[in-house]
Amino acid sequence: MTADSQHLLKTLIVDDESLARRGLAHRLKNIADIEIVGEANNGREALTLIEEKSPDLVFLDIQMPGINGFEVVQQLDIKTMPVILFLTAYDEYAVQAFEANALDYILKPIDEERLHQVLEKVRDNLNQKRALIQKRQLLELVSQFSGETISSFAELEEKNVADLMPKEPSRLAIRDAGRTTWVNQEDIEWIDAAGDYMCVQANGTTYIMRKTMKELEKELDESILQRIHRSTIVNIKHVREMESHINGEYFLTLMSGHRVKLSRTYKDKLVLFK
Length: 274
Known about the structure:
Blueprint: E1 9-14, H1 18-28, E2 34-40, H2 43-53, E3 57-61, H3 69-74, E4 83-88, H4 92-100, E5 105-107, H5 112-125, H6 128-146, H7 153-157, E6 171-176, E7 179-184, E8 188-194, E9 197-202, E10 205-210, H8 213-217, E11 225-229, E12 232-235, E13 239-244, E14 250-254, E15 259-262, H9 264-267
Parallel strand pairs: 1-2, 1-3, 3-4, 4-5
Antiparallel strand pairs: 6-7, 8-9, 8-12, 9-10, 11-12, 13-14, 14-15
């Protein structure tokens, strides 16, 4: 082993989005003192790899299905826990909570300058004292989110941390002509079928995607985006008023003033009627 290799930061990437993992890995491979020792697409794989690889640094996505980022940290050995860099798409309030507790985080999508700033911080502070401080700060952060004072990892182990933080907004990947655009599903107002294409209306913009209605429904958050007609999906949070029509049908008026028809077939399935 050379002198330089002794200072490599063994790094693990944990994110349930394969595209996000590949993008981060590509950036890290161009940084001389980073050695990527593994990638995980869920919390369970992360725990296994952390035990097997003993990384110095873990890029850890917080909101993942199954075991989320906080639950991964909850199960780590406090004596051997690596430095954690949280990957988050949280809103401004949550980001302020991270900053107030001096925990390292990177907001998604990842900014190149921010990545280098945080890595420089890791290099300057990668020692046992820093690790202990970070563990204390993590407890303070979890306390802030939960509204309960958690003073030790023993207390943290007794908590169900799955519900301690706000959920990241679910996003829809819209691919068209070699370009992929991610749109927050909460911003989608309605979706219309147009032949073999879907027209997604969000923030005053129309996005076109080639996909069947049935395929698209599997990717949507059904708690907010619901089918109201064989060719229409609507965001129920954007419904301003409802007006009865003939044959048991209704017209829904959205916040923008756009009107869509609710057919009898889907009426009883719609949350508005429950």
